[in-house]
Design a protein that fits this description.
Radius of gyration: 14 Å
Strand content: 25-35%
Shape: globular
Distance between the termini: 20 Å
Strand order of the largest sheet: 1-2-3-4-6-5
Structural class: alpha+beta
CATH architecture: Alpha-Beta Complex
CATH class: Alpha Beta
Order of helices and strands: HEEEEHEEHHEE
Number of strands: 8
Helix content: 25-40%
Largest sheet: 6 strands, antiparallel
Length: about 130
Amino acid sequence: MVTLDDVRSLAAGLPRSYEVVVRGRVKFRVGRIVYLDFSRDESIMGFAFPREWRPVLVTSEPEKFMLPIESELRWNWVRVRLAAIDMAEMRELVLDAWSMVVPKRVVAEYAARSTGMLVGLGAPVAIRRPRS
């Protein structure tokens, strides 16, 4: 099961990313743009995700993914149950969300420094490490 601390350890190392607490909820931002947030009980993570792909994601795995709350439907946003994902999937979701809010050159520089490779998915950019 993935925890907030697992996400925090990844997000803390991403360029321009920083953590804030707003009304008792942990959020990760780049500048003023939020790309991750957590429910107060830390069981659900909201993350940046293309609005046009949201219905496909949620209907493909409804036990894992959820639509955002009504006030967040206008944003590029979706939510996931942390208990339903593993570390590899968390890493992909976090990196994809982060890549939506930073300049493409920042993503490219990060990918060049990491051992991962950029994989175009037609939605956000995924930075994946080969599985061992």
